[in-house]
Amino acid sequence: MREMEFKMERSGLIEDGQEAVVTELQVLGGYSYLIEPSVAMSGLYKSWDRLKSRKGIRKEIKETDRGCYVTMELDE
After folding, report:
1. pLDDT at residue number 73
2. 31 near 44, Cβ under 8 Å?
3. 14-18 contacts: CB < 8 A, separation 24 or more?
């Protein structure tokens, strides 16, 4: 299992235990990941740290003054 954090602008777009599809985006200098349909986005990852799995389960959500952060559990 691999845990990954995504930033979500609005809460309530994904529920606990919900399975979600993750899309890989190639950006300058690395890769970024998006929970479909455009629910939340990850930070930047280097090529040696790319995801192998494209599906995951939402584990938890943290709401801070900077926004909502979703933690996903992915099979690696």
Report:
1. 94
2. yes
3. 14/39, 14/40, 14/58, 14/61, 14/70, 15/58, 16/58, 16/60, 16/61, 17/57, 17/58, 18/57, 18/58
